[in-house]
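Quick one from the shared queue. A colleague (R.T.) flagged Triosephosphate isomerase as missing a structural entry in our internal table.

Convert sequence to structure tokens.
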Amino acid sequence: MNARRFFIGGNWKANGTPASVKQLIADLNSAKLEVDANKDVEVVCSPPFVYLAEVKQSLRSDFGVAAQNMWDKAPGAWTGETPTQMLTDMGIEWVVLGHSERRENCGETDQVVADKTKFAIEGGLSTMTCIGEKLEERESGETFNLLDRQLKPIAAALSEEDWDKVVLAYEPVWAIGTGKVATPDQAEEVHAYLRKWLADNVSKKVSDSVRILYGGSVNDKNSEELGRKPNIDGFLVGGASLKGDAFATIINSAKAAM
Ligand SMILES: O=C[C@H](O)COP(=O)(O)O
């Protein structure tokens, strides 16, 4: 029995229309789960900002809701931004940070990701903080060095207590949206490394308790096998989280980990 409650995040990214979002909410609300989302597994969906209020109001209450980003300043004169407090005021519990798409396209550095993670936690949010290597880094044997670089500022910014509010998502960039999933052994090797890194650089308690998710082309066919690996505590799912039935099957794969 794994002490870490399995976690399934659904990152809808910048996808959806008013009609498709309504349909997805309806499909998720009527999905037949074989696991208890109040007990066996934690499920959090992350819609685009414009649909957050609707999803928060209409999605089943045993699923949490996450923003895909937030502004790490108090409300005020920040045109176009969404401060943390606005999210917590509307009952949002989670935020996705450090996703490779934001690192790559929006210039978010390792330090920015660490600072935002700290700010989010202080503001009352929990974070799915993402890390992961690009293909060239993997091929040149730099994966673990890169992960060290991404983790160090996060560990420096957070107190031991803060880690209760963090799930780490390992997302190899070469596997995101490519259909090229890491093999269970490849993913487990990195997750075991991250768990040891946390023990060596933060504490044994944090290493034992932090959930480490795998993300990158997870679908309803491969989730069960990945979920059996001892250091994989769940998934951050992109494309397959937009299909109610596939996402429900991925949630049910938590059974394999129990
Ligand atoms: O946040 C989710 C990841 O980027 C994975 O996306 P994907 O499942 O479409 O590969």
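The chain has one domain: 6-73+81-257.
Strands lie at 6-11, 41-46, 63-67, 94-97, 126-131, 166-170, 211-215, 234-237.
Added to the table.
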